[in-house]
Write a structure and sequence with these properties.
This protein is of the alpha/beta class and 256 residues long. It is built from eight helices and six strands; from the N terminus they run H-E-E-H-H-E-H-E-H-E-E-H-H-H. The chain binds iron/sulfur cluster.
Length: 256
Amino acid sequence: MACRACPRLVRHREEVARRKARAFRNETYWGKPVPGFGDPEAWLFLVGLAPAAHGANRTGRPFTGDGPRGAGDFLMAALHRAGLANRPFSRLADDGLALSGVYLSAICRCAPPKNRPTPAEVRNCLPFLVEELRIVRPRVVLCLGGLAFSWTLRALEALGEALPRPRPKFRHGLRLDLPAATLLASYHPSRQNTQTGRLTPAMLDAVLAEALQAQAPLPAQRAEGGTPTGRRGTRGRSSRPRGGPRPEAGSGPPPS
Ligand code: SF4
């Protein structure tokens, strides 16, 4: 993936990769757009904000390399407790992390200065998110943070999803049962949130429990012994269309 559509972000991601942090001065930074990662047949699709300068922009994998007690470890520990990840940390692209039924994505694929992409930059990047959602067809979409929430609504709208009017506002724990998928919202697991207690492990566990509950077939489907198929989004993995293009799941960079 060699997109250079956002000059400010291209400059920043490459400059960070050249200068490096002292702790990582002997590493080769990824320094490019960070592709999604996880299970290409995921039922749960997580949407974050953007790669961290010395985290995903270094390792080339979302939520990876933010350091102990960083966002990646906080998230992966929760996924591990929920039985959705094979280890409770995310440090390097070759650390053996495997996600089961989960896919990680973001509204912006390049590390922005001060972790803040501009609306124009997110708009440039949105087609990548739309395409991943179209291919993965998740049953549940979990947005991490307010920006991820509002831009994911736009992505779902671009896919033809019928959204409530007025548009719902972000709040932690929000659940929206849309025709094709359930949308959940959580605070982002950034240090700013987790080290101030705004987001605790128990709060994220509760959101993941809600996701697991939303993933289950509806009572009517269980009675019929089947799963309905929709325009997109499925009520169970057995109804997911096969074939066609796949996202670059798990296709991180070479080990750094
Ligand atoms: S943020 Fe997205 S659109 Fe902008 S340069 Fe990176 S990959 Fe391209």
